[in-house]
Amino acid sequence: MNSGFTPMSPKFKIYIFFLLAGVSTALCDGKGAPDWLKKASEISIPPALLEDSPEVVYLHDEGVYEVEPDGTIVITTRQAMLILNSAGANEAVASMSYSEDTDKPLSIKAWMIPGKGKKGKAVEYKKKDIVDSVMEGANGSLVTTSRRRWIDGSGEAMKGWVFGFETVLRDKGVDPELFWQFQGAHPSVYSRLEVRLPDSWQYSTFFIHGSPLEGSRKGGSLVWEARNLLAAEAQPMGELSPLSVCVSLQAPSGERDPIAGSWEELALRFWPYYDSAEDVTGEMRAKVAELTAGIVDPIEQIRALCEYAQSINYVSIALELGKGGGRRPRAPEEVFASNYGDCKDKSNLLTALLAERGFKAYSLIVNWDDSMKEVREDWVSPNQFNHCIVAIEAPDGYESANLVEGEGLGRMLMFDPTNEYAVFGDLHDSLQGMKGMLLAGENSCLIELPLLPLETREIRREVDASIFLDRVEGQFVETSTGQQAAEERSFAFTDSDNYEKRVSRWLADSIPSVRVINIEWRDDRRRDRYSLSAEFGSAGYGKNLRNRTLIFKPILIGRYEALPFGDEERTQPVRLNASNLVESYDLELPEGFELSELPEDRSFAEDFGSYELRFEHDAESRVLRVEREVRILPEVVPLERFPDLEAFYRSRIRADQSVVVLEAI
User: Fold this and answer.
1) Is the pTM of this model over 0.90?
2) Of 216, 250, 284, which closes a domain?
3) What is the mean pLDDT of the chain?
């Protein structure tokens, strides 16, 4: 789920574009290319950067931010990349994004020139090659002032050639923070950030990922340089953490928004935009009365209003981004009348509706971005957040794991009106344990969201199957709760036409040549239950030795056969996803056979998880009962504990692969 709260580094896709003119390119002898590009094309690449056979290598990656006395920032970016194979040709794109309300693109230029030891005619791209496009907002919305200007050089890119571009942008926005990413998806020989400040301006730096670089002063410029950087790649179950920095600027007299000295101060700046308790129209009052009519229990009244806000259509509103518009909600009456809004709009509307019924509630700014899992308390910045939910004062007597004790505010229930798949009282995994900025007037502060216990989410699976010499036939019923149920809903209700195919593929991962029929699912949100059932069969399951011996794996579904984090050398901590599986199998064994070998029960545990596997055989009924329980906590396992984690999962794989041996009587 994306949010309407402006992200620090948004990723968009193109929806509609307008050609400034027809596309054409001009051949040149290379003399028209700038000196920095020609110099970069002659660079020798360290062998270490080529070890993983990258598609391209950045030879030069530079950003120059020149701050003028009135707060205008002229941003110049330069990049040169060596194309190493045909896949790398697709990377040859010059791009600049901007906000129409405050930014003015001054120029975008690009060249394709022969690399070191190559010969050929260079290409200099012209104005006719420039494309300008509206940038798509969150969840496909086009309500935005963001645009993108770009030149596609992939058609001319060849192995051994160098694509380079330069963009110049004039930024008159209000954000006092500049961002630069030294490390990217490809190796980089040289990356550089230069900030030119007027004498009266102050600055501070926050390295978001990676070890801080030592900056230097060169004349009136601040310079940070990095050399020979490997690609920033996330390992399985790891985190992408490219070396990047934020430079916070402090203007002498308000040319840009001032840097807040504390989280309380920052929250108070946003509070006036979210203080919506009085913004209720007659139509809104009537709706509140309708939704809560006949409901006596206060928590059920809150539930009714929350579920209504959840039903409001999600549309991202991203106007006046350069002026901070991405962080200001629309008026509640406007959201109510139009029946659409983004995360901050829906949250602000909900606080107004709750206030009308007498319940105190506050907007809570949080971070949904997987690339920034931790909020740094020493970096007081709204750019650490990109989503908005609601904190609701809980009625007396209400108990839930999803409660936070707010100083001066009592117990608060967290609710996300944008998450259409989570039931009332639940909280998405990405938000649990995170910090958020509570907008509550004088009680505004940074708070920590709850980490819900595993008991709030569960998969309970019951399998009944018959084992034959030449096949297996059976059925299962699976009931999910909490976040596990929300995940299943997201699959079933966003792409219901393909949900059955997804279930079939899931079963096929464990049962070769499986045939799946009668897939059914049912959602009971009031009781937080999502149920999935199906019948299945597979010819040739197990290993039949001359009809005298039958060997089969009793764990039919969801066996682990490989390490989920891969076999490569681990260089990053492992972020575990929460899991709580309680499973039972009743397997009817074939007539004329007796149990020859039964696996031993297994039980092992670490502080991050536990595993249990139990077997029980009833010879009279020919039923083998297998019970498996797997619990994984949502923790980050540091590198020094990785051997323990690897040993845990290897033990699980061995247990999941256990075999039963039957012999003919």
Assistant:
1) no
2) 250
3) 90
